[in-house]
Structure formats: structure tokens, C-alpha cells
Amino acid sequence: MQAVKVGLLGLGTVGGGTVSVLSRNAEEIARRAGRGIQISHAAAKEYNAEAITGLDKIETISDDAFAVVDDPEVEIIIELIGGYSPAKELVLAAIENGKHVVTANKALIAVHGNEIFAAAQKKGVTVAFEAAVAGGIPIIKAMREGLAANQIQWAAGIINGTCNFILTEMSEKGRDFNSVLKEAQELGYAEADPSFDVEGIDAAHKLTIIGSIAFGIPLQFEKTYIEGITTIEQQDVIYAAELGYRIKHLGITRKTENGIEMRVHPTLIPHRRLIANVDGVMNAVLVKGDAVGPTLYYGAGAGSEPTASAVIADVIDIVRALTSDPENRVPHLAFQPNELSDTSILPMEEVETAYYLRMQAIDRPGVLAEVTAILGDLGISIEAILQKEPEEGASHVPIIFLTQRVQEKNMNEAIEKIKNLDVIEGDITRIRMEILK
Ligand code: HSE
Questions:
Q1: Which of 348, 392, 411, 418 could disulfide-link 225, Cβ–Cβ 3.0 to 4.6 Å?
Q2: How confident is the model at residue 188 (pLDDT cuts 50, 70, 90)?
Q3: Which contiguous run of DSSP H or E holds residue 37?
Q4: pLDDT higher than threshold 80 for residue 288
Q5: Which among 384, 380, 370 is positioned nearest to 410, based on CA atoms?
Q6: Do 100 and 91 meet the contact criterion of CB atoms below 8 Å apart?
Q7: What number is the average pLDDT over the span 387-391?
Q8: If you average pLDDT over residues 30-35, what whole number do you get?
Q9: 352-433 is classed in which CATH architecture?
């Protein structure tokens, strides 16, 4: 049987990896897919030909991406150019032309996925996006197919390698934020605009997708609560460790009686949890199903060949299903399109979690009582208190509180009141805390 012809948009880090892996593993891939897979037409603005093995097997390479999606010989388009535009126009044009699409573009799927899936549904084609979440970890497949028997209860993941690398280096080597970020950029992990990483936007794109697949709801990026790691200081990492916790940037989605939580923020987790020990640029996602219990998926969340691994697996899936009836393919968001639920996303104010609070207080009798009175009045129970020695000549001392679970709105009120006390100086650092059991 003739090889399936594939069009490739983008020959950067992931595009180059995709060409190399497809070429290196061509024989095994064909045995798995049932047919050969050939990239016949590619488009890229610029690329490093010497770094990509197998480039010579591509029949046509130009800088015209629309020529690739209009190529009548091509059955599958791989979109690896990233960003919203022209990626969205290219993907919609490919669908309109009756081609299947594989993409690693998390921003595109999180923000425009509903529209893209509806268009694909109408045309009877597949849009596959395993590489959009946690790079090489097959988390979409695991949740959509492997855990299909379960009611998913919650999922929590380290889904931005750059943030995890920064927090790991701060905690283990005492390095400062900016120098670690620079290194992540040099390693090729950081987004083109690194604020997407450190402000939590990249992780929120990925969490939006995880939440939809977990609970069968439309993609709702705009309702995801987003906080990055820029407010985390070295001392928080140290104090958290003293209290038996590690700080990780997590994406968390959980089904509650009142709605679905969708939140991305730094989180204290007990150091004995496996996920607390996922370091450097690695990613990990914990998923809890009612039947299976907690499951953990770990691996490289970015990088050339790890991401190519997910891209090519999607291409193989599509090739295997080319002759199947579109109605019988695995649905884009795990649940049948007409079975998506309108369960609401819980506003952050109503989310319940435990907290780490760090504040600077005047070192004199009665100060703690003032703070604990505010917490007590708002029904916030204290789990632990840590007071540090004042620095030489300093009038204020750091005090750290760990609280029990409480609604975010009560904590907001408490923080506002504590901040206004005369005995407290400056801002209060608040980091949410999860047990993840
Ligand atoms: N910038 C992302 C990260 C790359 O650091 O994880 C993969 O999406």
C-alpha cells in the first residue's frame, strides 16, 4: 500500500524532531501504522537544514504554508508553527480541505479548540493534539482512552517545564530567578515570550485541555484562574521545606458539588508525594479516577524529540483510523460531542484550599494574637506557625502560617485585614497548599 502523505508546517525544534524521528524509525512506524508515513510537503520560514536528519526525503519545502494545506496529495497536516495566527487559519483551511490535523499548539486548542473541533466534526476529520499537553507524556490518550471507565475526580500537574526548572534551581542551588530563566531560554524550553511560562499562561492553556478531557466540558480558557511564579521568593522555598513541603507550579482541576475548579498557581505539596520530587524541566500529571484511584504520568514536557514522539503517535493513530467511520473515532474531548456538559467552572473565590502565608511583623508581644484573632473570626483554622529570628538590626520578623482548608474569599478578606494591621509591614505572600491524596 502507498505511504500516507503528510504536510508539515514548521521546521523548528519540534518540526525538526518530527522529521528526524519519522525518518529514523520509519520501518517500525510503518509496521505499527499498517502503512508508511511520508512527509511529502513542508513549509517553514527558516530552518537549520544541518540539524535535521531525513530532510532530504521531503519532496517539496517552501515558505508557503497555505500551499501545503492546499496540496491535494496530502492527507494529514502537522501544524508546528505555534501561536494563534496564522496557525488557526491554516488549521481551519486544512479541515475545510478534508485533511486531518495534528498539532502541538496548546494556545490554539485552549482558546479556539471548540470552533476547530466543530469544523472538524462537520467535515468528518480528526484534530489530534497529544503534544499540546505535557510534551512527550501521553496524558491525553491516558485520560481519554485508558481511564475511560472512570469518573475522574481531579487532576493536578506540573505542566510547565520552565517554571519547574526555575523552582527546582531556586530550591536546590539557591539560584536567583532571572539567571535560571535565562538558562531555560538557552535550553530551548521557554516559550517565545517567557512571560507565558512564568506568569502561568502556558500551564493554563494545558490545564484547560486537561479539564475538558477529564470532565467532558467545552474548553474555557477564559475561566481558568492563573497565577505564575514571579512572587515566589527564595525564603518561601526554604520555609516550605522546613515545614515538610515543596513548592511546585501546579495546574489543578477538580470536580466539586458546586462546579469544576480550574486553577494554575504555585502550590505547597507534602515532600513525600512522588509528584513533589519531579524536578528540573520534567513534567508530571496526577489523575485520580473513582475506580482506578490516583495514577501518575511522568516524562519530558518539552524538547525536540519528546514532543515529536507525541506528534508522530497522533499521526499513527490517524493513519490506523483512516478507513474508519468518523462517527466511531475517539471523540476530540473524550466525550461524544453531543454529550458535553454545561457544568459551570467554579469562581476562584469559591474554591476551598489550605494556605501558606508569610508576613513581616513587628517583634513584640501580642502581635501573633492580633493576626490569629483575624483568622479565627473568619473561621480559618491554623495548622502550623513558624517564626524566624529577626535579621541583625531588623525591626520585623518573618512569620509563616499554614492554615487548614477554607474558601478563597475568606482568605482574601483575612489577608486584607492582616495587611492593614499597624504591626504588619508590606505585602503578605500567599501560596495555596494541596495534599493531593
Ligand atoms: N514552555 C513550555 C514549558 C514548553 O516550559 O513547559 C512546552 O509546552
A1: 348
A2: confident
A3: strand 37-43
A4: yes
A5: 380
A6: no
A7: 83
A8: 95
A9: 2-Layer Sandwich (3.30)
Helices and strands in the chain: count of H runs, count of E runs = 14, 17
Residue 248 annotated as catalytic: no
How far, in Å, from the CA of 135 to the mean position of ligand 1? 8
Atom number, ligand 1, closest to the C-alpha of residue 283: 6
The grid coordinates listed for 163 are 517554571
The structural domains of the chain, with segments of one domain joined by +, span: 4-136+304-339, 140-300, 352-433
CATH superfamily to which 4-136+304-339 belongs:
NAD(P)-binding Rossmann-like Domain (3.40.50.720)
Residue 302 Cβ inside 6 Å of ligand 1? The answer reads yes
Q: Say if residues 112 and 95 touch (Cβ distance below 8 Å).
A: no
- CA gap 9, 15 in Å, rounded: 8
In angstroms, how far is the first alpha carbon of the chain from the final one? Answer: 50
Cα 248 to Cα 229: distance, rounded to the nearest angstrom:
9
Which amino acid would we find at residue 317?
A: D
* Residue in the block written with cell 519532496: 59
Expressed in angstroms and rounded, the spacing between residue 18 Cα and the centre of ligand 1 is 17
> Which residues have CB under 8 Å from 204's CB, separation 6+?
110, 221, 224, 226, 251, 264
Give the 3-state secondary structure percentages of the chain, helix then strand then coil, rounded to 5. Answer: 40, 25, 35
- Dmax of the chain from CA atoms? 83
Q: Which of 375, 360, 373, 378 is nearest to 422 (CA)?
A: 360
The CA distance from 380 to 383, in Å, is 10
Grid-cell match 525591626, residue found: 395
Of the residues 88, 206, 248, 255, only one is catalytic, namely 206
| pTM across the whole model | 0.95
Query: Quick check: do 4-136+304-339 and 140-300 share a fold?
Result: no
- 3 state DSSP class of 253: strand
3-state secondary structure of 126: coil
Query: What architecture does CATH give domain 140-300?
Result: 2-Layer Sandwich (3.30)
Distance 179 CA to ligand 1 centre (A): 18
